[in-house]
Amino acid sequence: MDKKRLIIYPILFLATLAIATQGFTNFGLDGLLVPLLFTFAYFTIIFIIATVIKNNSIVDIGWGMGFVVGSWLTLFVTEDPTILSYVIVGFITVWGLRLSLRLLKRNYGKPEDFRYAQWREEWGDKVVLIAFFRVFMVQGIINFIVGSASYVVIKYNEFSFDAGHQYLVYAGLLIALVGLIFEVVGDEQLRQHISKKTGKLLQSGLWSITRHPNYFGEILIWIGLYATGITLFFTGSVNPFYYILLAISPILMSTVLIKISTPLLEKNMEKYDEWEDYTKRVPMIFPWSK
What we know:
Layout: H1 3-20, H2 33-53, H3 58-76, H4 83-107, H5 114-123, H6 127-156, H7 167-196, H8 213-227, H9 232-235, H10 240-245, H11 248-269, H12 275-281
Helix pairs in contact: 1-6, 2-3, 2-6, 3-4, 3-6, 4-6, 6-11, 7-8, 8-11
């Protein structure tokens, strides 16, 4: 492991711990320390399994379930959860289970994904140590940070149907629901297209307005879930500055999808003859942005 990462990883961990403890001020059950620790434990278990079967790409299967674990553990240590707490936990559970089960069905029995196989070859005999930090712990940190805003809403919201500002909650949930629809419909359209074995690029349905409707949907989901917590500014149940900082949740998820996941995937899509024309007509992520 190079010296730069020896510096970056502790800083990244401390930043994550600061989010979980509201700036190192809350190390009890009132903060997010429990979901953070269990998120690390969860990804460590996946790492052990991946090491045994020599397939680090199973971390992708476990990604969605990481949020399910985090949200339920947050709910368990919340003294007085509201109906909004249960709605958000339920939403994340449906989304996370669907994602993990879909990837499990798609990848079960298949060899290690090309990205992880390439890293395995590059890292050689140090693959176990390097993969633990660069694949599993980094994904654990990202998983927790992305979920942190939702965990805060689950734990601290004071939702009431009588409160005038609750329309912000409804707006946020609507955005998240639209995102889930984009993700589910986009995945299903892709599944049907692949099953036809045409060997051609999918350019119809949602794929005619965005090259990655599932990624666009996921971005909307985390923006919507963050928006449900805007009411925390009115209730004073958390420091407003703290929740503003938690905007890193949708920002980080959007950055990972746009700057990392999409380029890796599109590099693999260049093999299609229609690809160049398709990229000229259809925006990468955000529909109708061209």
